[in-house]
TrEMBL record:
Gene3D superfamilies: 3.10.50.10, Glycosidases. It catalyses: Random endo-hydrolysis of N-acetyl-beta-D-glucosaminide (1->4)-beta-linkages in chitin and chitodextrins. GO terms for molecular function: chitin binding; endochitinase activity. Keywords: Carbohydrate metabolism, Chitin degradation, Glycosidase, Hydrolase, Polysaccharide degradation, Signal. This is chitinase. It comes from Saccharothrix syringae (Nocardiopsis syringae). Coiled coil: none annotated.
Amino acid sequence: MSSRRWVLPALLATALTASLAPQAVAHDNDRGHAGTRTVGYYTQWSGYDRNFLVKNLVTNGTAPRLTHLNYAFGFLDESGRCVSSDPWADYQRPFGAEQSVSGRADVAGQPLSGNLNQLKQLKAKYPRLRINISLGGWSGSKYFSNAALTPESRAAHVASCLDMWLKGNLPGAEPGAAAGVFDGVDLDWEWPASEGAPGNVVRPEDRRNFTALLVEYRKQLGRLTWRTGRSYDLTAFLPADPRQVDRGFEVSRVFGLLTFGTVQGYDFHGAWDPRTNQQSALRTPAGDPAPLPFSSQVAVDHYLAEGAPKSKLVLGVPFYSRGWTGVTNANNGLFQNATGPAPATYEAGYEDYRVLKARLADFTVHRDPAAGHAWLFDGTTFWTWDDPTEMRRKGRYVADRRLGGAMIWSLDGDTADGELIRALTSGLS
C-alpha cells in the first residue's frame, strides 16, 4: 500500500515536548473547531495539467474550512539535505493578476514568486491558517534513511530544512525571501524500515532513527522559537498497515513529539491488486477476500492500542478514486477479477473526484453503509467512490470517535464549488 532504543534523557525529551507541542495545539484550538483539525494537501504540481491554483482554494471555499495546509513536496538529496524538487513551481513561476490570490500580477525582480508567494498571500487573507512544508512523499522518500542515520546526519538534515523552508533561504533568491511562509514541517517518510517506492534506502534501524529525527527537529525548532517568538508545528504522515507501523514507529514516543500525526485512510487497495476492492472503507466490508483486513478502523485502533492519543490522531480521506477495468460483471463489480487499471486522465487506475463526477451518468453508484464505502460500476469498469455522502460519513466517524481531525489528499480533486470539503467539515462539526 501507497500504502526503542535511542532517545534523549527523559527529562530533556519531556521538556522539549512540553515547551513546543502545547503551543502548536493552542493554535488548533483557536480555530473554533474544539480542537478538530481539517488538514489539506496542496501539491506542487496542481498548477500544471490540473490547472488548480492556490487561488482556487479561495474561489471554491476550501481555504476558510482548513486549519492546516500541507504543501507537497520538498525532497532530500543523497546526503539528506533539503532541496526543492521543482524550483519553478515552488518560487520562480510568475502569476498574472487573474491567477493570483491577491488579484495583483507578479512583477519581474520581486523577491518571491511561484506557489510560495501565493501561499504567502493566502496566509495574509486567512491569518489563522497554518501552512507546513511536507517533505518526502512517495517519490521523495528515497534518502530519508540517510538523513536519519546518525546524530550528525540528523542535525545537518534538520538545519538545512529549517534554513530553506522556515527561514526562507531559497537557492538563487534573496536571503530570507520565503521567511514566514511556513509554520512548521510535515514529515512524509514512506516508510521507515519498510519498502516504499522502488529504490528507497531502507534500514532496520530506521525505527529508532525516526524517533531520534523527531527529537532533533524539536530541539532545533525550539531554538528557532527562542529567536522568533513563533511556535512551529511538527507533524508526520503515517501508514495504515499495522505491519509497517510496528516495523517503523515507536508510536507513543512519536506522538509525544508530534503536534499531530495524520494516518493514511486510503490506498487500502488499488489496481496493483488483481481483484476490485475498497480503497478507503471505514470498516472492513463483509466478504472481503483480501488476505489481510484493511480499513480506517483497523488503522486507528492499532495506533490507539500502541499509545497514540485520540486528540493527536488525524484520519486521512481521499478526494480521488482507484479503478480497475475488465471487471467480471457480478456482485455489482465488487471483489471481482479485473484485467488491469482503469484508463484515467493523469495516471491509470487513479482519477480525481471532479473528473469522475462529470462522467457519473455512465455509472451506477453502490454503497455499503455498514462498512462505510461506495463504488461505481458500469458492467466492466469499477471505481471507488468518495462523494459528499461518504465524506459526511467519514467526518461523523472522526467526530464520534473524538479523533483529532481529518486530512485530505489532495485538495485539487474537489469540485469548483468545494462540495467534498463542505461535506467533510459538516460531518466533523
